[in-house]
Write a structure and sequence with these properties.
Structural class of chain B: mainly alpha
Radius of gyration of chain A: 24 Å
Strand order of the largest sheet of chain B: 1-2
Oligomer: heterodimer
Number of helices of chain A: 17
CATH topology of chain B: ABC transporter involved in vitamin B12 uptake, BtuC
Mean pLDDT of chain A: 89
Number of strands of chain A: 22
Strand content of chain A: 25-35%
Structural class of chain A: alpha/beta
Low-confidence stretches of chain B: none
Strand order of the largest sheet of chain A: 6-7-8-3-9-10
Number of strands of chain B: 2
Radius of gyration of chain B: 23 Å
Distance between the termini of chain A: 57 Å
Largest sheet of chain B: 2 strands, antiparallel
Chain lengths: 507, 366
């Protein structure tokens, strides 16, 4: 073991990308045993800054100091060697290998000339996981693990490789509420031995965990301070540059006709078990129904079955009088369904396509965008410019590939396309997952606007605040069935949490 | 840090020069080892074909099938399927073309030639449809199915030439060269100069058509969407398997057409070895040309030049054609590597920093 990291400084870091100033003279300081929360909207430069610290990018100007001495990282190996470890937002694990094998990939001490000393790695995994109270099974395959467990594996891996300073990039963005609470507790214990930089959008987590907070906006440090001195509202206001008030659904009941009626729907998951097992649900026009539940209880399969992407084994999906079960996606789209999919990066957009091309994904055949199957370049471009301005999509131009945008902007591209297609109904699956406050506020307002126009919305989410703020009625899904449907007035975090865990007090 | 134009120019030029030198050096070592005249050999392969009209026409003759094949391969590739079966599809196109020509030799040319070419398209298209539908419906790897269909097509081709379509004159004289009889003049494509035929214009028109199809129509839009991210395409209501199968029919059709044109323009009878590895070179041309018609047209010319140059080398400078092919392989790898290096933005940024540091330091000194 080399020296402990007592202090880490990044001084006057500047990084330019073609056309963007990602980091503009940023300085941060982390002392021994401190947790620094790095917050800011999508595209504020947080991830770029951390990638510079990990040697993935090189800064154009500025320097990095560890324990007061300047260091230069030419690649991630140098940063590892200095004791830095990063858990990325997207986990870097090989699904068809075990936990031990995944750790062994980077564990060079175990690489003997002719053999890989897996036993040594396994012992080390057990040692680390016991030391920090990180429960992992060293022999489990990654694909068998839940997202929360995979994250623990990432942590164990990083620690096994000798990290004495942890960088966590939005560690809770894919976790369920329970897993999030566990992680926060765990990190609190770990900060006795380690310093941590913690990137997050979620201000209650920032409050719960960090000592200090640094806020970035448009690549600049706009605020530096002790976490305890500020309320989440104050931090949110500094982050976005204006007061953030997440909207709430206080509209009167629209008394709309049933728009989407699911009866006794059974659908199989990819692994062959019944993911939806006799599900019944009705959504009316002009109403938002929030579908609450821990992810993996059939939400994905439900959205896919309605949208013609998954076959329905039994039951009917009646959409304005038409049965959508086992129809193809085109048929469903043609009948006026709008759909914001869960996996925005691979399903919601075609990543290498330009933004303007992504806007016409569902409508390339319509007279508006093509004539005799020749694309109308001008109206496609006009449409793209208008949507970019209306939805405040930050991009260098409409010919930029959609895949190169940040998560929030990708979601805005999808939202813009789905909403402006004038759908009769909207299914939004985890629409704000991993997005910053500003983007969440924007998306919530758009959804409420659609509701006011008389459109029914099925909102799938695991953020209870989001569900409670927006929904007229809340349905709780558990193991492929609707546990219970609560009117907005009766729902609160407590009773929803109990229902989500599978306990139905009425029974 | 701003990338000045000067830097970009110097950077690109620098990499291309390093690549060219590396290729030259490696090829020179090989030539030097077999005791050949290095400079004379390079001249023969790369420049001699450009000096005379006759040579130029021979280069273009080889570029025509390469261009058509590569256009077809690029359509399949853009739609998400890697067609390495163009060799077999081309052979089937030749057979279908020849069969029509043999069956109705007395039809007038304006009728027979289009019919025969269409048959070539259908023959190749059918051979492309098989792996396409297998991949679309059953997810059978196209690498496996296209290669296997190449074997089948090659053997079927030989069987047809030796048995079904064998030239009656060969039977009588008994020399047994496996080839069809000379086809009727009614299937011949006109010639411009030397052996160079009107297929040149067909290839160029097809390049324009492929560009329009893939980038200007909804049809091409959907094929590219399916090839770039099939989940998003399916989500957007695009029938991915349909477009996959169609793209392979088109790709195979192009290969078949290339075969038909090769017979109608150059050989005027089906002969052994007519496909001449064009199907495989076509994959390289398609990738080398960036899967875009504007790149494929010059790339096919370059490869036509190399292929023809290698036929000149044995007689002019006594270097065996095999060695020339080894050199070609090396040159292609080096050029493709250089292209990849050029597209590495991070390397470019790093070099730019060095350049700026150097430049500014010099300024201070001055």
């Amino acid at each position: 073991m080399t020296e402990k990291i007592r202090s880490l400084d990044m001084e006057h870091i500047t990084k330019r990308f073609p056309g963007v100033l990602a980091c503009d003279d940023i300085s941060i300081h982390v002392g021994e045993g401190e947790v620094l929360a790095l917050v800011g909207e999508n595209g504020a430069g947080k991830t770029t800054l951390m990638n510079i610290l990990m040697g993935l990018y090189q800064q154009d100007e500025g320097r990095i100091l560890i324990n007061g001495e300047e260091v230069r990282f030419r690649g991630p190996e140098d940063a590892f060697a200095a004791g830095l470890g990063m858990v990325h937002q997207q986990y870097m694990l090989v699904p068809n290998m075990t936990v031990t094998e995944n750790v062994a990939l980077g564990y060079q001490q175990a690489w003997k000339p002719l053999k890989l000393d897996l036993k040594m790695v396994r012992d080390r995994v057990i040692e680390i996981s016991e030391h920090y109270g990180l429960q992992v099974n060293p022999d489990a395959y990654i694909w068998q693990l839940s997202v929360g467990e995979q994250q623990r594996v990432e942590l164990v891996k990083t620690l096994c490789l000798g990290a004495r300073f942890l960088i966590l990039d939005e560690p809770t963005s894919a976790l369920t509420p329970q897993e999030t609470d566990e992680l926060i507790l765990l990190l609190k214990r770990m900060k006795d031995e380690l310093s941590i930089i913690f990137i997050s959008h979620k201000l209650n987590e920032v409050k719960a965990l960090s000592n200090k907070v640094t806020i970035l906006r448009h690549g600049k440090v706009v605020f530096n301070g002790e976490t305890d001195d500020y309320s989440p509202q104050e931090i949110a206001a500094l982050m976005t540059g204006h007061e953030v008030q997440l909207p709430e659904n206080k509209e009167p009941d629209m008394h709309g006709a049933p728009a989407l009626v699911l009866k006794d729907v059974c659908v199989r998951s990819d692994r062959g078990f019944l993911a939806l097992d006799g599900l019944d649900l009705t959504v009316h026009e002009g109403e938002i129904v929030g579908l609450a539940g821990v992810s993996g209880n059939g939400q994905r399969e439900l959205a896919e079955a309605i949208n013609g992407l998954r076959s329905v084994e039994r039951g009917t999906i009646t959409f304005f009088g038409v049965n959508l079960a086992n129809k193809n996606p085109y048929y469903v789209i043609d009948h006026g369904m709008g759909y914001i999919p869960e996996e925005r990066n691979v399903e919601g957009i075609v990543p290498p396509f330009a933004i303007r091309e992504n806007f016409i994904l569902k409508d390339s055949d319509r007279e508006r965008f093509s004539h005799l199957s020749f694309l109308k370049k001008k109206s496609i471009e006009e449409n793209a410019k208008r949507l970019r301005d209306d939805f405040d999509i930050r991009c260098p131009g409409t010919s930029t590939s959609a895949g190169s945008l940040s998560g929030g902007n990708i979601q805005k591209v999808i939202l813009a396309r789905e909403i402006t297609r004038a759908p009769k109904f909207l299914i939004a699956v985890y629409p704000t997952r991993g997005l910053d406050m500003g983007a969440i506020e924007f998306i919530h307002r758009e959804l409420l606007k659609k509701r006011r126009e008389g459109i029914g919305i099925l909102l799938v989410s695991e953020e209870l605040d989001e569900i409670i703020n927006l929904s007229d009625r809340i349905a709780v899904i558990y193991k492929g069935k609707i546990q219970k449907v609560l009117p907005h007035a009766e729902a609160n975090r407590r009773n929803l949490g109990i229902l989500m865990a599978g306990v139905n007090e009425d029974e | 840090m701003k990338m000045s134009r000067t830097f970009k120019f110097v950077y690109k030029l620098g990499i291309m020069l390093v690549a060219a030198l590396a290729a030259l050096l490696m090829a020179s070592i090989i030539l030097w080892m077999i005791g050949a005249d290095v400079s004379q050999t390079f001249y023969t392969i790369c420049f001699l074909p450009l000096t005379k009209t006759l040579h130029m026409t021979e280069v273009l003759i080889r570029a025509i099938p390469l261009c058509i094949l590569a256009l077809g391969i690029s359509i399949a590739y853009r739609s998400g399927i890697i067609n390495i079966g163009a060799e077999g599809q081309m052979a089937m196109g030749v057979l279908a073309f020849t069969a029509v020509a043999l069956a109705a030799p007395d039809l007038p040319r304006p009728l027979l030639l289009p019919m025969a070419l269409l048959a070539g398209v259908l023959g190749g298209g059918l051979w492309g449809f098989i792996p396409g539908i297998l991949k679309a419906k059953l997810k059978v790897s196209e690498l496996l199915s296209t290669v296997m269909l190449n074997y089948i097509a090659a053997q079927f081709y030989t069987f047809c030439l030796r048995v079904l379509m064998l030239d009656p004159a060969e039977k009588m004289t008994g020399s047994g060269t496996p080839q069809s009889m000379r086809l009727t003049a009614n299937i011949e494509l006109g010639r411009l100069s030397g052996r160079l035929h009107y297929g040149l214009f067909i290839a160029l028109v097809l390049a324009v058509l492929v560009y329009l199809l893939m980038w200007k129509t909804t049809f091409g839009y959907k094929m590219r969407a399916a090839g770039s991210q099939d989940r998003a395409a399916r989500y957007g209501g695009i029938n991915v398997s349909k477009y996959l199968a169609i793209s392979m029919i088109i790709s195979g059709g192009f290969a078949g057409l290339a075969g038909g044109i090769e017979i109608a323009g150059v050989h005027r009878r089906a002969i052994e070895g007519v496909t001449n590895n064009y199907g495989f070179s076509g994959v390289v041309v398609a990738l080398f040309g960036g899967l875009h018609p504007a790149g494929i047209v010059p790339a096919s010319f370059l490869f036509g030049l190399l292929i023809y140059g290698s036929t000149l080398a044995p007689t002019r400078v006594g270097v065996p054609a095999n060695i020339v092919q080894v050199m070609q392989g090396l040159i292609i790898i080096v050029i493709v590597t250089a292209q990849m290096v050029l597209s590495n933005k991070y390397l470019e940024a790093r070099m730019c920093r060095r350049w700026n540091a150097l430049f500014h330091k010099q300024k201070e000194v001055a």
